[in-house]
Amino acid sequence: MRNICRLVSLLLVCLLCNSSSLQAQQSWADGLVQPGRLEFGVIARGSAAARSVTLTNNTGAQLHIQGVSTACRCAEAGNPSKTLLQPGEQATIEVRMNTVNFEKQRDTSLSIIIDAPQFAEVRIPISAYIRTDVVIDPGKVDFGAVEYRSGSSRRVTISYAGRPEWQIREVKVTNPDLTAEIQETRREQAPTDGINIVYQLQVKLADTAKIGRLAEYITLVTDDSRNPYVPVLVQGEVTADIMIANPSVALRPVKVGQSAKVVLVVRGNKPFVIEQVDSGDLQSSFRANLTDKADKLHRVELEFTAPDKPGRFSQKMQLRIKDRPDPLDFLVSGSVQQ
């Protein structure tokens, strides 16, 4: 009997130790991912709803993401931006709600499987309520690729079925590059109880928008006391009209008073003129050969004459383009020897 009791006690101790070990491992893995929960809130039927989680490798060792999945088809996980992370590197995973085939309350989770430096599974709870009375078509405002200084405009339709007095009161926009207008286009009695209401939402992207990706939400504010807000996803990318092919150039080492040359290659979608090269603190040390001729391709020769002060330098410089308000940045580095 004593032997049996000792055996049972030993098993309990082992189970407790294993449980503590697993909890510690899980705690370590959970700390890699932010946020720890994805709350979509109330979203419209047919709308594009996406959130991202970021995994940061703070382990000090190489980390590998084996795979990602969701517990329900109501949420879909994209591939990680990277699967092999060196210490300090990050990966993002986008999660999208399926608002076309699912509705009402949806609670599920995202699973991230890590198999190096040790095995772990991170589970991120996901929650959303897909309302059935509001439908967005198409599901998002998608500008696609828009060339810098071009601007763009898109429309989506907001349909509502339900309360006769329902209305959209305003549109909240936080990005200064975006403006939005809402207009009611139809309000008619439905075949059954209730009413069908249709709005047109027009969103404009300013021609002054900065180059880069656009991904954010604008918010429709309705008179619904319980769920007044309807988020609308806005996506797109402002692409460069002019690009520097070698935005980071290195000069060969030179002695005080000596000169060195490099060539900067600049391409554009349309002919353009480079008016000035701004060399910042080293303005007196650089000379650029510029032409008044407009062209799609410029090869700018920069001549550097070493100043009296020896040492390494890294200078941020700018190209100023005619009729283009924003300059183009590039970096020149080198060393001056005694």
Give a verbal description of the structure.
This protein has 338 residues and is mainly beta. It has three domains: 35-132, Sandwich (Immunoglobulin-like); 140-239, Immunoglobulins (Immunoglobulin-like); 242-337, Immunoglobulin-like. Helices cover 9% and strands 59% of the residues. The protein has one helix and 25 strands. It has one helix spanning 2-30, and strands at residues 33-34, 38-45, 49-56, 63-70, 75-77, 84-85, 90-97, 104-116, 120-137, 141-147, 152-162, 168-172, 178-189, 195-205, 212-222, 229-239, 242-244, 248-250, 254-255, 259-272, 274-278, 286-289, 295-305, 311-321, 328-337. Strands 2, 4, 6, 8, 9, 11, 13 and 14 form an eight-stranded mixed sheet that branches. Strands 18, 19, 21, 24 and 25 form a five-stranded mixed sheet that branches. Strands 1-3-7-5 form a four-stranded antiparallel sheet, with no helix packed on it. The protein is flat. The termini are far apart. The model is unreliable at 7-25 (pLDDT under 50).
